[in-house]
Amino acid sequence: MKLVTTKAVDKPPRCPRCGRQHQKWYRYAECRFKALWAAGSGPWASFSDCPRGRTIQLYDTREEAERAKEFIDKWMCGGLCCRAHRVVYIGATGL
Ligand SMILES: [Zn+2]
Ligand SMILES: [Zn+2]
Prior knowledge:
The protein has about 100 residues and is of the alpha+beta class. The protein contains 2 helices and 4 strands. It has helices at about 25-30, 60-75, and strands at about 35-40, 45-50, 55-60, 85-90. Strands 1-3-2-4 form a 4-stranded mixed beta sheet, sandwiched between helices.
């Protein structure tokens, strides 16, 4: 019996901001969403839009991104946190 393996995460879509094909999800997220920094890999993003600047953590699944958001909602993401956190799917074009 063949088990279905977890599918590899696709490459990010072509970047509508610079027109390039970024090879890494975090590079794509940083460029497209003008983030101070982005980390991780995958199409599910936990955004922090708090005053110190936008930061993005990336995950393969929505559950992981939601969990990360809950965590920063509870513990704050930094010194100027105003809880401007959200989970965004960044895998689709035309967002
Ligand atoms: Zn770009
Ligand atoms: Zn915050």
